[in-house]
């Protein structure tokens, strides 16, 4: 899964998701978002997911200060951490259920504003926090 964003700035912002795969119920999903073109202390990173034939669903976020916010439906199973020096954000979702089957994406914010951009795996161009 690869996402590239061009803005009217000198550097290009990219976010690349790695990990995932096929899991069994009860196992833990680990997906890493590798970012470039910005600092994790300047931008927040948010995770969204899209189940087959369904809309985009907000999963959670890690803010510039390192705090988290999670979708209440996932509250006891989700954990988002970051390594600022490696420019990586890790999503962990434990005790997997069949309804967790989805494409998982990371996106970024700057100063609280979301950038609208095309998704490589979806025709939708924006997501709404539920």
Automatic annotation (TrEMBL):
Residues annotated as domain Ig-like: 11-107
Signal peptide: none
UniProt keyword terms in alphabetical order: Adaptive immunity, Immunity, Immunoglobulin
Gene Ontology annotations for the cellular component aspect, listed alphabetically: extracellular region; immunoglobulin complex
UniProt cross-references to Pfam families, sorted A to Z: V-set
Domain of life: Eukaryota
GO biological process: immunoglobulin mediated immune response
Keyword Transcription among record annotations: no
Molecular-function GO term, any one: antigen binding
Identification of the protein by name: Ig-like domain-containing protein
The organism of origin for this protein: Anolis carolinensis (Green anole)
């Amino acid at each position: 899964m690869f996402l590239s964003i061009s803005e009217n700035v000198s550097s290009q912002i990219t976010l690349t998701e790695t990990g995932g795969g096929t899991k069994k119920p009860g196992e833990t999903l680990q997906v890493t978002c590798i970012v470039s073109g910005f600092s994790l202390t300047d931008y927040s990173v948010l995770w969204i997911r899209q189940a087959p034939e369904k809309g985009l669903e907000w999963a959670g976020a890690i803010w510039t200060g390192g705090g988290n916010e999670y979708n209440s439906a996932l509250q006891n199973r989700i954990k988002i951490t970051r390594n600022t020096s490696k420019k990586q954000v890790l999503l962990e979702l434990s005790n997997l259920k069949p309804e967790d089957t989805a494409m998982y994406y990371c996106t970024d914010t700057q100063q609280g504003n979301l950038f609208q951009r095309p998704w490589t795996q979806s025709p939708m161009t924006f997501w709404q926090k539920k």
